[in-house]
Structures are given as structure tokens and as C-alpha cells.
Amino acid sequence: MPDPRFFDNLGPASLSELARAGAAELADAALGDRAIIRAAPLDDADAQGVAFFSDAKRKDAAGATLAGACFVRPEHGDLLPETCAALITRHPQAAWAAAVSRLHAPRRHDPSAAALHPEAELEDGVLLAPNVTIGQGARIGRGTRIGPGAVIGPGVLIGRDCVIGANAVIGFALVGDRVSISAGAVLGEAGFGAAGGPRGMVDMPQLGRVVIQDNVTIGANSCVDRGAFADTMIGENTKIDNLVHVAHNVRVGRNCVLAAYTGLSGSTIVGDGVAFGGKAGVADHLNIGSGASIGAAASVFKDVPEGETWTGFPARPLKRWLRETAWLSRMAGGRGTRGRP
To answer: I need a surface site. Which of 94, 124, 235, 278 has the fewest CB within 10 A?
Structure first.
């Protein structure tokens, strides 16, 4: 279930309602009154949850799901177990997104409340600059300083002795102690996810959180997106430069360093003590081993083993890149016509 501090539960909804919301057809009309209270991924859904299945490579997961219902294409309906009601549609992801809107809603600032919501809790010693907005249910720890124009969303937890810069925006987030978030940084906005529907692309719902552990630094105008369903996490003592993007579901370990313009695509897992040079980019669903170093402007498309240094486009081990670069230089300079790097 999405964290109730950040999402309101609008359920239950019947399967008939969800079928209409997603422009789907319920394979067994007799199940139309079955109640669903939550949306979840295929692997995490239970008997009161609705999921979607669209990747034939995951047919084993479809067959093992505990979901009470699942949006599937017509040719995949038979893959589901008997306990899971099939919602038939040509666009399972887009249909599921519509169902999510019926079941869950992100909590927003109360427009009728004061800038400092009366249900927010501030410990002694919190310092607020002018024009700070703090939403309902937010909790701010002792000694934290919040700069002018900063916006703290409903339910957000910020630990003690933190520094929040001017115009920073923090939502859907749990922030530890002694965290520094610089001016203009944005934590907890929706991660980037879209799916094709009958009328074009639709945004996929993002029902997770951002978790920032103790002693983290996040530079000016950097963005850390909330998870699609699981959490985006930044480990203890990690230091993030200005203008860095950390996408949804990314997990960054402890004592990492991310220089400016680094971009980590969704569901990337980064071990402890990893260093990223400026403008490094990492494709989605990769693993960067502990102690690895990624060179400036490197473009990573494969898992990087622990302790290795990779650079280049596409990124590869440093010694290989140096050897290839030297060979190319010799060939371009006319100093050799044979041989391979």
C-alpha cells in the first residue's frame, strides 16, 4: 500500500468500476463485484490488489501472481492463475494507470490553510525564513533551518540539524539528520514513466517515496524523483553536486560522490563509495559495484564490477579505453596502418 502520509486511499472499487476506468473488459463478468483496495506491481500485489502484465518475458511472474485482478492483453489472459481476474485490454499499462487514479491520490497542500499548516509539527529550534510553506502532517526536527520560499510537502519528515536552501521543494520524502539540500533542489516529484494508450501517451503513476539518509548533501537545482512504487534512496554521507538527476527507484549507497550533470536512470543500483565524474550517464536497471569510478561524460550501458574504473562512450574499463584511444590516434596521425587496439 502506498505510504498514507503521502497518498490518500480512495478505495475500495469494484472490478466493474476499474474495468470502466481503464476501458477494459472483465473476462469473467461474474467477478464484477470483487472489491479492490490497492494498486501494486505484479510481484507485490495481493488478493485485494490490481496489477498489470505486458511483458511476455515475465510470464512466470504472471502465473505466480497473487493479485486479485490484472490488466492483460487478450493473448495473455490464459497466463494468469484462476485466482486472478483478467481485465482484457490492448493497453494494460495505460489501463492500470487509470485504475490507480481511482484507488490512490497524492496528498497535496491544503489550499485553505496557512502557509505553516496547523497540523505540521516543528521541534524547538527550527528556523523558518520568510515565505516558507509547510504542509499538513509534516514534521521538522530540532535545529533545522529552512530558507526563504522553500516548500515542504504534506507528510514529509525532516530530521535534526538540516539545512534546506531557498526555494527548495521537498515532497513524498523522509529526510535524515544533518542533511543539506541546496537552493532550488527538488525532491519527490514524479519519476518519468509513460505508456501508450488508445489516445496517445499517458503518465504512469508514481506511488513511492524518496528516502535520504543522514549526512547527505544535495546540490543546487538537483532533482531526486520519488519511486514508481518502491523507494528512491540516497545512502549515508553521499554527496551530490549541483544539477544532478537521480531518477525513480534508484538506490545510491553510502559515501558516494556525484559530480554536476550526472544522470542516473530509473532502477539503477549503486554500491558504496562510487564516484561519478561530471556529466556521467547511466542507463536504467544497471548495477554499479561498490568502489567503482565512472569517468566524466561516460555513458554506461552495462553493469560495472566492483572497484573498476570505466569511461568513454560507450563506457568500458579505463585501460581498454586508453588502449583504443591511443590506437585511434596513431591511425589518424598516419603513424601506423596495421594492428588492432
So the answer is: 124
